[in-house]
Amino acid sequence: MITASPEHVTTTPNATMTGLAAPSRGSSELSTWQVDMPAGATGPEHSVSREQVWTLTAGSLEVTFEGRTEKVAAGQTMVLPADAARRIHATETFRAHVAMRADGVVSVPGEEEPRILPWAR
After folding, report:
1. Domain 6-120 carries which CATH code?
2. Which ranges constitute the DSSP H helices of 1-88?
3. Any long-range contacts for 6-9 (C-beta under 8 Å, 24+ apart)?
4. What are the φ and ψ backbone dihedral angles of 48, each rounded to 5 degrees?
5. Where are the domains of the chain?
6. pLDDT tens-digit profile of 79-107?
């Protein structure tokens, strides 16, 4: 049984991620976390080395990837392929649950080293 706790929360200028399942909390292969993003916030363009599955439980967002922009609303799930450049914009405050293989890393244009996702480890 895993219970969310303050030490598994990461806040960035654009969103708050609450780590749920991860290798550091008992999962051997997968990581899951909750993303809360306020209306109007936009994350940086980035790509992730592993496929991600996002299920929106509240609000809505726009995701731009592979040359198109899609709107995702509460109750919908989007699958973002590995290594596809994407940008997330909160058209309204949203909450999403995300699942990914635990070894995924993020690459941001202009940065030499990939970023490790602390909430997913």
Report:
1. 2.60.120.10
2. none
3. 8/119, 9/119
4. -120, 140
5. 6-120
6. 999 999 999 999 999 999 999 999 999 99
